[in-house]
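User: what does the whole thing look like in 3D?
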Amino acid sequence: MGGDYSPLAHGIGGRQDLPVPLETAIVAAVAALIVSFVVLAWTVRRHDASDEPMPVSPVRERPVPRVERLVDSTAWRVGLRTVGMLLFAYTVMVGVFGQDLEINPIFGIFYVWWWVGLVPFSLVFGPAWKAISPVRTINAGINVLRGDDRGLYEYDEKRFGYWPAAFGLLAFAWMELVYPHNSYLGPVRLWCAIYVAAMLIGGQLWGTRFYANADPFEVYSSLVARLSVWGRNAAGRLVVRSPLTNLDTTLRPHTGLVAVVSVLFGTIVFDSFRDSIPWLKFTQNNGFITSHSWAPYTVNNLALFVFPLAVAGFFCAGTMLTGVGDDLDRRRLPVLLAPAVVPIVAGYVVAHYMSYWWEGGQATLQQVSDPFSNGGNWFGTANLKINYFFAYHPTLLADLKVLSVVIGHVLGVISSHKRAIAVLPRKHMITGQIPLLVTMVGFTVGGLYLLFAA
Amino acid sequence: MRRLVAILAALLGMAGLLAGCGGSSSGSNTASKTKVIHITFSGSSVTPNGARVDVKVGQKVEFVVKADTAGQIHVHSSPEKQLDYNAGTTEIQVGSFAQPGLIEVESHALDKTIVQLQVQ
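Assistant: Here's the predicted 3D structure for the full assembly of 574 residues, as structure tokens:
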């Protein structure tokens, strides 16, 4: 397959995780189903109890003034920006002066630390990329020189929203999964250069709001960060909340959110699916594909677009089939309910990348010590022995993966239930949730199937 | 909410038990016999073509390659292995794998996955 030129696309040396055992996948799917119906039954009971409007439960959160003083201090902010700029400078250095070899750390930094590492850091610490983003820092620097920190134009959030980020995420997925020369220095360097240029020009034209909407990494990181325990209340104070409360209180429907979620889920599903036996047999045995040299690459390109479109299609159909009152436009429903899919996507991302992050992350730590591939040991990590814990504990890994998918599903279902209560008219409260529930169960079971089959 | 957590915990406990049973019963038979995989190249086609083969941890693997022209097979283990074969029949000792996982065996010239070794 096209992407397999890359030594990193599938973890170190290409050894991949064993499939999840069938029993584990089935038990998890049954668990997801049961939880879904328990939540639905819960709605029925609360619905029957009275005709009064559903009580909105108060937001439970705890202010953390000490942590707030620390993270809001200038020293902390400058410190994080410095870390971001040092990582940026190092990456530019290995990108420009490093050798075009597999052990150049730029590949690990690009595909593992940046893309995969974004998720655990944002889950644990909140919006991590926003805090260290070098493009934000450079933009702020240019603004100081210019003496004006506004963009030339207002960014039209209602109209464009997250759409630029959705295309940026698709561009990254194309690089990682489809482009055959993705493990060569030139293309990776070019991709990064285009990213930085687009971000700096965008920042100057539309101001800092551009980054919150158009930087694919910031949008991805900040989306995942809604599932962390860190949030800000209405007064701007730092608070600790449950991940679910955080998601429900902070993630507002946003133009392009459906696109971002569909691209993230669709491309990662494609990443799993392209290694499955049915897909290999199809692409390698199909007469038309094998007799035209351009066909395999084209099929991969098409699949990269078709998977996110299919995810978006299922989701829009599932939400729009819901019964609504006269005051609500059916076409608004996908956007209104999209935040509920975020935990399902996050759960699958964690499952998909868990062992890759562990092993690839360590391999990158090893490689960064030798930036110019000449046997250097700048940081003393060049001889680090990689710990293959997950490779030797495949049962534990399979259980953790499935657990992560199921937790994501449970959070998603509860979140969609709360949103449905807020959005749907009472007479459609129960029946209205069923198509959405079926869609979510479909995503989860599909994800579990791929963990089992690929 | 608490009930949900309890149901989940019970189900996942079951998952762990089932998976655990599956693992222990297959480990008793030691991997002494060499796994022989026959690979045939002819023109731009290869058989097997995207098949999955079970291999035990530590079991020796041998490829018996029949080919019309010489070429190279890539084994995406860690570290990666590149194995040359000649026109005619070549027997290649691939060795054994210490870590469980899924290992792709590919022909980069044909851009095809020949087999995936499922090392358990």
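In plain terms: The beta strands of chain A are 61-63, 230-232, 238-241. Residues 336 and 348 of chain A are 22 Å apart (CA to CA).
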